[in-house]
């Protein structure tokens, strides 16, 4: 068992938030008495390296979805819906009242995963900015739930909000009433207002939602959340900078660094999905079905590999690997795979094929060597490992093609599926801002006649070529089931 | 040229002449005062040394990321490069002149005065005396009204004290706020200030440009909203619905108070904005009641000589009449009237200038290349008396110098002998206040996070 404890705490020795009560037990007998966490105090127990990585990846899935919601300009409601769905799957956080659930375990995972991602994302200004923005949104979305348990949480933070005394309330009664959107009690003394420097509540100032006098904003208790959010952000910003400064000390552990490296790459690529097993829709795929399936269901990276294979009757090593594993997960059996590849490599002898390629194909199916059943490569792997050289065809076209070539490829590949020149600017702008998975998702929507923002279902973005294909085939099944498309 | 006093144009009046500008920088420009104002103390600090200056050179060459070690260095460089004007930017985390050798992460804007820019262009649709690039004492009234409101709001609401208003050299005004808090604002906070202040929104096609009413509704999250109290039955109606009641935010009520007088004097009496048919048709479109609108339309179309002031009286009378039959419309019509006053007189801000720390703004005392006028500070309490046509021009200043000084005995602070003196004194006094405050802050070092 590996202890990550010293690593996570090392960078935060200077923190001293008001959350020491986090580890007290309360009437529910919980070690984490509150559902929400300000993450002022790092986790103090041992963490296995498996949990270290898996929990972080799970959190990354949630943050990744939030980030693509920003990029896709989703409405707040949509973002909430999509994020809650992801949270439920990967990072559930139940209220104290949910006594049947192991709330401490959920909260511990939330706590630990946040701190692991801090390590991964503190390394550059850009990553810090994106991390803060998405964590901030996650906190806000969660804050809106289970309002009845919020007060206890907020007072545990000890943020020191000063409430306005009754004399002052009377003095500014007219202004406070005029500035308030919510109706106030006829006796102003019964209302709670906090007095804070306006810089702590810029969002309330921007919307002209408070009474402002001499630099002090008079914040009604119903707007307390703004102050909490601001404090959360300020806290996180400060601590991330401290973490960044302390990070070099981590270099001593060579098991953690690659994980962190992967995690921060994951943010760029979208979060890896695991597609280690065949699709549910994938039974009985045979070698002679591949051409047609490719035309209808492949994402651009696989279309590029397929078309290259057909044109050149050959693929280089990494191309074979990327495409072969993809086909395996589609449901192409080992027997069919050998048929497929034998036919594809037109200009070599049976002998050469058996010696040089067959072993590798069987190997990738886990039938040779270490007998490891290799999963297909996720978008993240494709984007970040083994960058293609000039004569190689693997990789992600959105990232690895020149803009001109990408535009041409999109038009020629998807023209017959409704992709037009008018769609190019949007895609190219996503590409330009390095949101490759967003570009790919948008192409999926366009070529499948799906409403913008729906993605591959429920607003999810493409993070794996097999996921793209699986969804495409599902849609086809659904529509042919309705008798819409028969061919 | 708006200056008609000089029949014959003389050499020194040509602000585009490099020779004129060089003499101006050598003998008149108050480098020392500008330095002290930007630096907040006598010894050059990061506030000055890490500050970006951008030069506009003849031939539209724009030179960014200049920085100087001290006022002498600045004067030397300015004279050498002889820009037609220069701008002041942010204080960075390193010296701007070393930008190329610094890692990108090590060169970030950190501090910057909060700045505002008000330009006559934004009033072109309502002013009647001038158009385009022109400006006169009369249309300065719009700027004066804006200064009155902003100066008051920034001092009483935000609590800032160190405000420097500067004439932009042609038809607008700049404001620089140097309070510690204002210097340290993030871009997000600057954006918030603009959200707070901005009232006039919408382009040419949008007739009603004031939409600031808070239409009271229950907070969406009832779990945390206070219970409604008796007598306070609230509508969830959209702002356009009749019978809705929109309170004006106290900050805007305060603005409205000072704008009411401006509206009468400037809009009705001086500019006579509703005299022309185009003018009063806009006014009609801002009235949210069909009966009143058609009554006024009929009256005004048949009497083309009626003054704006009389038309406004007509409007008020029609409202009163109408309320006799429909008293429930009082709030809506009062709101409409107030909104009209705001639309014609509330400050029109160029928000983009203020939102970003690294935005550049022309330095005070630069010369406007086409008018030759110097960008002089303005006392906000006397802004209504300010006349842009009496601001000293570079030509006038050089002539004054020639009259009083012995060419053999030139001195660096020759501005003292010119009509620029009261303006430089104004900046020096402003800077002295900053220095005094900085001393207090320094004494409390440790308590303050004012780290520069
Ligand atoms: Zn004029």
TrEMBL record, chain A:
<feature type="binding site">
    <location>
        <position position="379"/>
    </location>
    <ligand>
        <name>[4Fe-4S] cluster</name>
    </ligand>
</feature>
<keyword id="KW-0004">4Fe-4S</keyword>
<feature type="region of interest" description="Disordered">
    <location>
        <begin position="1"/>
        <end position="21"/>
    </location>
</feature>
<feature type="binding site">
    <location>
        <position position="396"/>
    </location>
    <ligand>
        <name>[4Fe-4S] cluster</name>
    </ligand>
</feature>
<comment type="function">
    <text>DNA primase is the polymerase that synthesizes small RNA primers for the Okazaki fragments made during discontinuous DNA replication.</text>
</comment>
<keyword id="KW-0639">Primosome</keyword>
<dbReference type="GO" id="GO:0046872">
    <property type="term" value="F:metal ion binding"/>
</dbReference>
<dbReference type="GO" id="GO:0003677">
    <property type="term" value="F:DNA binding"/>
</dbReference>
<dbReference type="InterPro" id="IPR058560">
    <property type="entry name" value="DNA_primase_C"/>
</dbReference>
<dbReference type="InterPro" id="IPR007238">
    <property type="entry name" value="DNA_primase_lsu_euk/arc"/>
</dbReference>
<dbReference type="Pfam" id="PF04104">
    <property type="entry name" value="DNA_primase_lrg"/>
</dbReference>
<dbReference type="InterPro" id="IPR016558">
    <property type="entry name" value="DNA_primase_lsu_euk"/>
</dbReference>
<feature type="binding site">
    <location>
        <position position="440"/>
    </location>
    <ligand>
        <name>[4Fe-4S] cluster</name>
    </ligand>
</feature>
<comment type="similarity">
    <text>Belongs to the eukaryotic-type primase large subunit family.</text>
</comment>
<dbReference type="GO" id="GO:0006270">
    <property type="term" value="P:DNA replication initiation"/>
</dbReference>
<feature type="compositionally biased region" description="Polar residues">
    <location>
        <begin position="1"/>
        <end position="11"/>
    </location>
</feature>
<keyword id="KW-0238">DNA-binding</keyword>
<dbReference type="GO" id="GO:0006269">
    <property type="term" value="P:DNA replication, synthesis of primer"/>
</dbReference>
<keyword id="KW-0235">DNA replication</keyword>
<keyword id="KW-0408">Iron</keyword>
<keyword id="KW-0411">Iron-sulfur</keyword>
<protein>
    <recommendedName>
        <fullName>DNA primase large subunit</fullName>
    </recommendedName>
</protein>
TrEMBL record, chain B:
<keyword id="KW-0479">Metal-binding</keyword>
<keyword id="KW-0639">Primosome</keyword>
<keyword id="KW-0804">Transcription</keyword>
<dbReference type="InterPro" id="IPR014052">
    <property type="entry name" value="DNA_primase_ssu_euk/arc"/>
</dbReference>
<feature type="region of interest" description="Disordered">
    <location>
        <begin position="221"/>
        <end position="244"/>
    </location>
</feature>
<feature type="compositionally biased region" description="Polar residues">
    <location>
        <begin position="221"/>
        <end position="231"/>
    </location>
</feature>
<keyword id="KW-0808">Transferase</keyword>
<dbReference type="Pfam" id="PF01896">
    <property type="entry name" value="DNA_primase_S"/>
</dbReference>
<protein>
    <recommendedName>
        <fullName>DNA primase</fullName>
        <ecNumber>2.7.7.-</ecNumber>
    </recommendedName>
</protein>
<comment type="similarity">
    <text>Belongs to the eukaryotic-type primase small subunit family.</text>
</comment>
<dbReference type="GO" id="GO:0006269">
    <property type="term" value="P:DNA replication, synthesis of primer"/>
</dbReference>
<dbReference type="GO" id="GO:0005658">
    <property type="term" value="C:alpha DNA polymerase:primase complex"/>
</dbReference>
<keyword id="KW-0240">DNA-directed RNA polymerase</keyword>
<dbReference type="GO" id="GO:0003899">
    <property type="term" value="F:DNA-directed RNA polymerase activity"/>
</dbReference>
<dbReference type="InterPro" id="IPR002755">
    <property type="entry name" value="DNA_primase_S"/>
</dbReference>
<keyword id="KW-0235">DNA replication</keyword>
<keyword id="KW-0548">Nucleotidyltransferase</keyword>
<dbReference type="GO" id="GO:0046872">
    <property type="term" value="F:metal ion binding"/>
</dbReference>
């Amino acid at each position: 068992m590996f202890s990550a404890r010293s690593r996570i705490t090392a960078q935060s020795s200077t923190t001293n938030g008001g959350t020491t009560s986090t580890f007290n037990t309360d009437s529910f007998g919980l070690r984490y008495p509150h559902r929400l966490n300000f993450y002022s105090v790092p986790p103090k127990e041992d963490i296995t390296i498996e949990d270290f990585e898996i929990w972080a990846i799970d959190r990354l899935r949630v943050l990744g979805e939030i980030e693509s919601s920003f990029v896709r300009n989703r409405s707040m409601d949509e973002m909430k819906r999509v994020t809650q769905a992801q949270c439920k799957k990967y990072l559930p956080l139940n209220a104290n009242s949910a006594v049947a659930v192991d709330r401490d375990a959920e909260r511990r995972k939330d706590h630990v995963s946040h701190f692991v991602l801090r390590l991964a994302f503190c390394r550059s200004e850009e990553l810090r900015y994106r991390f803060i923005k998405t964590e901030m949104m996650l906190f806000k979305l969660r804050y809106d739930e289970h309002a009845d348990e919020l007060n206890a949480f907020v007072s545990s933070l000890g943020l020191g909000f000063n409430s306005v005394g009754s004399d002052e309330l009377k003095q500014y009664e007219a202004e406070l009433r005029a500035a308030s959107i919510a109706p106030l009690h006829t006796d102003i003394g019964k209302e709670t207002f906090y007095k804070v420097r306006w810089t702590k509540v810029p969002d309330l100032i921007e919307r002209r939602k408070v009474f402002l006098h001499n630099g002090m904003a008079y914040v009604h208790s119903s707007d307390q959340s703004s102050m909490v959010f601001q404090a959360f952000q300020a806290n996180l910003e400060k601590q991330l900078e401290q973490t960044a400064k302390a990070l070099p000390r981590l270099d001593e552990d060579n098991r953690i660094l690659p994980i962190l490296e992967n995690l921060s790459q994951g943010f760029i690529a979208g979060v890896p999905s695991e597609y280690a097993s065949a699709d549910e829709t994938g039974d009985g795929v045979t070698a002679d079905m591949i051409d047609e399936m490719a035309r209808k269901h492949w994402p651009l990276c696989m279309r590029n590999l397929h078309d290259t294979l057909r044109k050149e009757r050959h693929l280089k090593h990494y191309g074979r690997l990327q495409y072969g594993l993809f086909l395996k997960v589609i449901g192409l059996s080992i027997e069919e795979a050998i048929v497929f590849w034998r036919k594809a490599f037109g200009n070599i002898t049976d002998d050469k094929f058996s010696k040089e390629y067959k072993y590798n194909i069987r190997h990738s199916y886990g039938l040779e060597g270490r007998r490891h059943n290799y999963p297909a490569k996720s978008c993240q792997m494709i984007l970040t490992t083994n960058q293609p050289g000039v004569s190689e065809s693997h990789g992600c076209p959105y990232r690895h093609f020149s803009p001109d070539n990408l535009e041409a490829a999109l038009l020629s590949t998807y023209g017959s599926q409704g992709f037009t020149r008018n769609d190019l600017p949007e895609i190219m702008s996503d590409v330009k801002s390095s949101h490759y998975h967003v570009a790919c998702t948008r192409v999926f929507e366009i070529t499948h006649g799906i409403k913008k923002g729906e993605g591959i279902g429920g607003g999810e973005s493409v993070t794996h070529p097999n996921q793209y294909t699986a969804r495409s085939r599902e849609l086809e099944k659904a529509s042919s089931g309705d008798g819409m498309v028969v061919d | 040229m708006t200056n008609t006093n000089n029949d014959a144009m003389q050499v020194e009046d040509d602000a585009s002449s490099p020779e004129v500008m060089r003499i101006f920088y050598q003998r008149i420009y108050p480098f020392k005062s500008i330095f002290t104002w930007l630096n907040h103390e006598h010894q050059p600090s990061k506030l000055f040394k890490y500050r970006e200056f951008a030069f506009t050179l003849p031939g539209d060459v724009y030179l960014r990321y200049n920085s100087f070690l001290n006022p002498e260095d600045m004067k030397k460089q300015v004279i050498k490069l002889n820009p037609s004007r220069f701008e002041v930017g942010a204080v960075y985390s390193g010296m701007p002149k070393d930008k190329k050798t610094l890692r990108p992460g090590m060169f970030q804007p950190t501090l910057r005065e909060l700045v505002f820019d008000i330009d006559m262009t934004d009033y072109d649709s309502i002013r009647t005396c001038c158009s385009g690039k022109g400006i006169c004492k009369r249309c300065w009234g719009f700027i004066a009204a804006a200064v009155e409101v902003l100066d008051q709001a920034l001092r009483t609401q935000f609590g800032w004290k160190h405000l420097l208003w500067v004439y932009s050299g042609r038809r607008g005004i700049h404001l620089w706020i140097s309070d510690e808090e204002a210097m340290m604002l993030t871009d997000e906070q600057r954006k918030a200030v603009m959200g707070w202040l901005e009232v006039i929104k919408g382009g040419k096609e949008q007739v009603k440009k004031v939409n600031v009413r808070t239409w009271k509704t229950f907070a969406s999250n009832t779990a945390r909203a206070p219970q409604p109290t008796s007598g306070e039955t609230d509508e969830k109606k959209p702002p356009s619905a009749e019978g809705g009641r929109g309170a004006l935010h106290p900050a805007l009520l305060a603005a409205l108070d000072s704008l009411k007088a401006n509206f009468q004097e400037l809009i009705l009496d001086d500019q006579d904005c509703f005299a022309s048919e185009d003018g009063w048709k806009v006014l009609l479109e801002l009235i949210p009641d069909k009966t009143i609108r058609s009554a006024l339309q009929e009256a005004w179309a048949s009497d083309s000589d009626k003054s704006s002031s009389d038309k406004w009286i007509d409007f008020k009378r029609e409202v009163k009449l109408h309320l006799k039959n429909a008293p429930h419309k009082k709030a809506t019509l009062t709101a409409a009237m107030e909104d009209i006053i705001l639309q014609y007189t509330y400050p029109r801000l160029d928000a983009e200038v203020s939102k970003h720390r690294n935005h550049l703004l022309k330095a005070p005392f630069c010369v406007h290349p086409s008018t030759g006028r110097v960008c002089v500070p303005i006392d906000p309490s006397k802004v209504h008396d300010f006349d842009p046509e009496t601001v000293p021009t570079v030509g006038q200043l050089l002539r004054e110098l020639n009259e009083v000084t012995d060419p053999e005995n030139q001195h660096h602070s020759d501005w003292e002998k010119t009509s620029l003196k009261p303006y430089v004194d104004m900046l020096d006094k402003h800077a002295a206040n900053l220095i005094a405050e900085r001393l207090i802050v320094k004494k409390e070092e440790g308590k303050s996070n004012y780290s520069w």
